[in-house]
Structure formats: structure tokens, C-alpha cells
Amino acid sequence: MTPPTSTQQPPSPALLKPILKPPHIDPRALLRAMFDAAVAAAQPALCLPRHLPLPPRGRTLVIGAGKASAEMARVLERHWQGELTGLVVTRYGYAVPCERIEIVEAAHPVPDEAGLAAARRMLDFVAGLSADDLVICLISGGGSSLLPLPAEGLTLADKQRLNGALLASGATISEMNCVRRHLSGIKGGRLAAACHPARVLTLLISDVPGDDPVDIASGPTCADITTCEDALAVLRRHDIDVPAHVRAVLESGRGESVKPGDPRLAGNEIRFIATPQMALEAAAAVAAEAGVPAHILGDGIEGEAREVGIAFSGIARQVATRGQPFAAPCILLSGGETTVTVRGNGRGGRNVEFLLSLAVALNGLEGVHAMACDTDGVDGQEEIAGACIGPTTLERARQQGIRARDSLANNDGHGFFQALDDSVVCGPTLTNVNDFRAILIEG
Questions:
Q1: Rounded to 10 degrees, what is the CA torsion of 363, 279, 374, 325?
Q2: Which of 61, 83, 314, 417 has its CA 20 to 30 A from that of 425?
């Protein structure tokens, strides 16, 4: 299998018109403009067309899964010269009209019957292809839940219970997808193997730290070096109890995924068309146009969201009070995918938990503002992208009788920010390059 490639560049600052200039910068408006630029840089219309191949001698089939897959399909359809047919599954509310590619909607993050039926149909759809045929696979974040085909002997209910347990456990996305791959009938390279001997070109929008293709939608077209034993280790590490028949699939090795060197994947190609780093660079360009230096601290930051919030508060405080490691004014940018171990009765959401922890640690520090949002428009299971904070956040909460520390202990970031009218709601963005975090330290 050809190694993943990426040639996409973020849009130039000239294309992202600045709306603000010093000395009259509105912190929230600037942070929102940066978030919008990050999302725009990962739009399929901008980054997909240049990666399309020439039509094959045989048929062209389009398959895919993820929150961005429907929009990817629409863009592909508009730019494709020749015969085309396809089946793509996306999250409820993320469908767009296509003429030749069927778009199916299913549930995310906990899978449902619609996703199960779509996964079964997809395997049937690619059966019986020839070496002259081409399969273009459109994959983006969310595909793991949208293609929930259980391994033999398992049920959708098994997958639903496991998904819920993984989401609440604090496991990283890589750990969760390792387990999913080894309990699946379609992930971990199995979908690409089903396309053999046709050529498979996978176009990826990455939403995972490190941009490892096997972790994006659990790698339905990627060879997988992890094993059933690795999946069992994840369950042990996070104390996730599963029924005996589920554990038996892993312990027996029946859930083993497709490995590197498998001849069914020979000649397949994977290309990244958008990544978190590209989105952060686009946001940094908007900040530069506004006259504020932006520093990208990392595009793959993981860990408990509240702990990351504490760590970033220390960096922001050092900048604000010491001018180290950067002079103010400046913006600290980061991406990745943190986790939330839900112990309270709140609704979770890693971006709002990060912000709530950051606000508590900063304790009203003057001149520090922040925004954290999921670039797909959904933070956790809420139809809310994220939120924003400033020096007055804690005081405004106290005036309403809300204690930030109590909300944090209860994993209720969404409730906290909704009460303050500080939530960021943008609706489906039709793309997904993971979390966007920006901290503005004013001069």
C-alpha cells in the first residue's frame, strides 16, 4: 500500500479577509474568525479536487463514511469526468444533495441500525469488482460509529454498549479505535480487502492526533499493525468490562484485522487532503492579518481535557506576567483530541471541559481570552461546537449562583457555558479536523 501523502496548503492570508485591526481588536470576534478560517481550510471544496485521479478503464465506485463524507461526495461528483456510482454514510443532519452518489444518514457517536444497514450494503456494493475498476473511498472522522458492522457472533447492541463505555472511560481515540477494529466486520482494512482486485484510492480528512490513517474511522481501508491482544490491553487498562462472548472474539484471535503485506491491499493508495495542522496554519494566518502573532503549540495534543486546561493556563500566565516563552500580545494555538472521563452527571464535551478547567485555573486573569471548539460543530454529543471564556467568566457565573468548580467536578461544561450564553453554535460544518483551541493573551 502506497504511503499516505499530503500536498494541501492552507489558504493564503489574502483569501481570509481580516475583519479586525489593532488597536481595536475584539477578542471574541478575532477568535471566532480564526475558528471559521480553520474550518474553511478543511472544506472538501477547497482541498479535494486536486487529488482526484483519471477515470479507470472499468467502473468507478465511490464509498465512504464520516461527518465530512457527504460533502466530499458532492465535491467529487461535481468534478468527476465519467461514469460514477456510490454509497456514502454520514451523521444525521450532515447529508447534502448528490445526483449519482447515494447519501445515507446514521447515528454518531453511538451507532444505530441505519449505520449497520449501510455497512452491510457497502460490503455488498463492492463485491465482484475487477482489476480494471476503481474504488474511491472518502473517509473522515466519525466513520467508526457510522460503519458499525459487528464481527461474526456479535450484535449491534454489543457495539452500542461498548461504544458508550469507551466514550466514558477516558481512553484515547487511538485506544478506542484499536478495540473497534478488532470487533468489526468492516474496519481494520476489511473494506479494502472486500474491494480486491479493484484499485482503491482513499481520500482522508484527518481528525486524529498524529494523522495515522488506521485511526481515522478505524481504518476501513488501511492495514493494521495492532492486534487482538492490544485491544484486550486497552480494556484492561481502562477497566472496561465486556460480556464473555465479546471478550472471546479477542481472546480467540477471531477479530484479527488485515495486516501489512496482505496481497488484497497491494497497490492501494491513501492520500490526506486535510489535516489539523493545515487548519491551525489557516487560523494563524488570520491572526497575523490582525497584527497578532500566533504560535502553534501542537496539532496532536491528548490527555484529560481538564489536565490540559491546567497546563495551558500555566503557559498563558507565564506569557501574560513574564513575557515567556512569547511576548504578548499573542495567541496560543493547538489541536488534537483530549478526553473526558465522565464521573459526574453532566454531558461531558472535551472542549467545554478544557475551557472550564482553564477558566478555573486562570481565576479571572486580566487580558486572557480563549475559545475551544470541535471543527465538526459537535462537542461530545451536543449540537454545540464549544465555547469561549474571558476574564469575567467566573464572576458572571457567580452572579448567577453557579460555581465553576462544581460544574467542572460534575463534567457539566455545556450547562455552565449555556447559562452564560457563551456557547459557540455553528451547526454542521461538513468537515472534521478535530479540536481547535486558541488562547489570546492581550498586551
A1: -20
A2: 314
In sequence order, what DSSP letters do the residues of 187-220 get, joined into one string? Answer: TTTHHHHHHTTSEEEEEEE--STT--GGGGGG-T
How does 82-102 read in b/e, with b if 16+ C-beta sit within 10 Å?
eebebbbbbbeebbeebeebe
Domains of the chain: 27-41+276-441 (3.40.1480.10), 44-274 (3.40.50.10180)
CB 71 within 8 A of CB 96: yes
- Show the cell assigned to 349: 464535551
Q: What does the alpha-carbon distance between residue 99 and residue 151 come to, in Å, rounded to a whole number?
A: 33
* DSSP letters for 413-425: HHHHHHHTT-EE-
Strands (E), 276-397: 294-301, 330-336, 368-374, 386-389
* Alpha-carbon span 4 to 197, nearest angstrom: 20
User: C-alpha distances in angstroms, 419 versus 399, 409, 415?
Assistant: 11, 17, 6
- Provide CB contacts within 8 A for 374, sequence distance 6+: 350, 351, 385, 386, 432, 434, 435, 436
Cell triple for 218: 478505524
48-74 burial by CB neighbour count: b if 16+ within 10 A, else e? beebeeeebeebbbbbbbbbbbbbbbb
Task: Write out pLDDT tens, residues 232-286.
Answer: 999 999 999 999 999 999 999 999 999 999 999 998 999 999 999 999 999 999 9
The 3-class secondary structure across 12-58, one letter per residue, is CHHHCCCCCCCCCCCHHHHHHHHHHHHHHHCCHHHHCHHHCCCCCCC
- Burial environment of residue 31 by CB neighbours within 10 A (0 to 12, 13 to 18, 19 or more): buried
CA distances from 273 to 49, 68, 304 (A): 9, 12, 28
Please list the residues that pair with 105 across neighbouring strands.
90
Side chain identity, residue 180: R
Task: Look up the pTM and report it.
Answer: 0.87
Task: Supply the pLDDT for residue 23.
Answer: 56
Instruction: List all residues 6 or more positions away from 406 whose beta carbon is below 8 Å from its beta carbon.
Output: none
pLDDT tens digit string along 142-172? 999 999 999 999 999 999 999 989 988 989 9
- Whether cis (ω within 30° of 0) applies to the bond prior to 148 is no
How many CA atoms lie less than 13 Å away from 336 in the CB half-sphere? 20
Helix or strand or coil: residue 369?
strand
